[in-house]
Amino acid sequence: MSWTVPVVRASQRVSSVGANFLCLGMALCPRQATRIPLNGTWLFTPVSKMATVKSELIERFTSEKPVHHSKVSIIGTGSVGMACATSILLKGLSDELALVDLDEGKLKGETMDLQHGSPFMKTPNIVCSKDYLVTANSSLVIITEGARQEKGETRLNLVQRNVAIFKLMISSIVQQSPLCKLIIVSNPVDILTYATWKFSGLPKERVIGSGTSLDSARFRQTIAELVGVDARNVHGYIMGEHGDTEFPVWSHTNVGGLQIYEWVRQNPHVDEEKLVEVFFQVRDAAYEIIAKKGATYYGIGATLARITKAILNNEQAIFPLSVYLEGQYGQNDIFIGAPAVIGREGIRQIIEIPLADSEQEKMDLSANTLKSILHDAFEKLEAENN
User: Fold this and answer.
1) Which of 5, 234, 240, 337 could form a disulfide with 211 if both were Cys (CB 3.0 to 4.6 A apart)?
2) Residue 318: which pLDDT band, with cuts at 50, 70 and 90?
3) pLDDT given for residue 51 in this prediction
4) Catalytic choice (68, 116, 235, 242)
5) What DSSP string describes 137-197?
6) pLDDT grade, residue 159 (50/70/90)?
7) What's the Cα-to-Cα distance from 380 to each of 19, 44, 163, rounded to whole Å?
8) 133-152: per-residue pLDDT in tens?
9) Whether residue 188 has a cis bond before it, omega within 30° of 0
10) Residue 249: how many CA atoms within 13 Å on its side-chain side?
11) DSSP state, 344?
12) 338: alpha, beta or left? (left if phi > 0; alpha if psi -120 to 50)
C-alpha cells in the first residue's frame, strides 16, 4: 500500500491555526484518499471563527456541573460507628472516610482493618485521628459517639451525660467543616439533635437525627413477615420520640397500596391479634437485642448508609427522621421523629401527615415528654456553667 501526502503550493501561506485539517484530510492516508484535489483551493477557517470555536470549547468545559466532594466523617468507632462505616464503604458512597475516637488503640485497629479491605471497595482514602482536624471539609459528619446505654436504662436517662459530651464535641466539628450536614445517632437522639443544633449554630435543615428511621424499618419488616410479602412493599411510619413514647401511624400503613386494615379483611389467614402486637415488638426490639448481645448496630448501620446515599446523591428521598418542627403536628421548637424529604442541602421539607385523633394525642404526649427532659437538661447545664 502506498501513501500520499498533500502538497501545499509555495505561494500559499498556511498557519497551524488556520488550516481546516478535517476538510483537507491532512493526515497520512491510503491512496484511495487521492480524491483530495491537489490543484484545488485550500480551505482556511478565519481566525475570528476559530476564536469563536475556542471560546465555545472553553465555555463547555467551564459550564460542566461541579464534581461534588463526598467526604464522610464518623465520630465514634464503637459498634454503631463501625457498622455505619462498613455499610458506607461497601456501597461506595464516599471518596474519603475519616474516623475519630479518643481510644487511639481501637481507632487505629479499626482503621487498619478497613484499609486492608480497600482494594475491594471504591473509597480510596480511609483516615483516622483523635484530632477533629482529620474531619476538615466533610460533606457529612455522622455522630455515633456518646455514653453507652446500659441494660435496663432508657434512652432518655442517657441525656445528662451525653449533652455534656456534645457541648465540647460539636464546636470542634463545625470549626473544621462549617458547611457540613450533621447526622446524630447517639441516644437519646431527639434530645441530642436539639442540643447539636443549639451548640453548632448551623441552620436547622443541616442538623438531622436518625430519629425513627430504624424503628420504621423494623415496623415494615415485622408486618412483612406477618402478611407474607416483601418488606419493600410495606409502607408505614413510627413517629414521635425514638424511644418509649413513639407510636405507629396505623391510619397510613399500607401493603402494596392497600390500607392495612383492608389487607387483613381481604386476607383472613392473617392473625389480627399478632398484628396488634407488632408495634410492641418493634418498640421493645432494641431492649431485647441489648439484653441478648449488648448493643444494636447492624440495623442502624444499614439505615445510616441509606440516609447517607440519599443526601450525597441529592435523591430528595423521604425518611422518618428527627427534624425541627415549627408548627407541624401542632408542635414548636422541638426535634422529633416525622417524615421529611432530604437531599444534598439536608432537610428540604417536613411532610405533615393527617393523623387520626388517637395518633395526634400520642404525638402530643411524645413531644411533651421530650420538652420536659430538654428543659431539665439545659437548666442543669446552665446551672453547672454558672
Assistant:
1) 337
2) very high
3) 58
4) 242
5) T-SEEEE--SPPPPTT--GGGGHHHHHHHHHHHHHHHHHH-TT-EEEE-SSSHHHHHHHHH
6) confident
7) 80, 82, 10
8) 999 999 999 999 988 767 77
9) yes
10) 24
11) T
12) beta
Alpha helices in 183-271 (DSSP H): 189-200, 213-227, 260-266
User: What is the model's pTM?
Assistant: 0.80
Which amino acid makes up residue 125? N
Q: Count CA atoms closer than 13 A to 206's CA, side-chain side.
A: 17
3-state class percentages of the chain: helix first, strand second, coil last, to nearest 5: 50, 20, 35
**Residue among 76, 102, 100, 97 nearest 87 (CA):** 97
As a whole number of angstroms, the distance between CA 268 and CA 259 comes to 15
pLDDT: which is higher, 44 or 275: 275
Which domains, ranges and CATH numbers included, belong to the chain? 3-46 (no CATH), 71-211 (3.40.50.720), 213-376 (3.90.110.10)
Question: Catalytic: 242?
Answer: yes
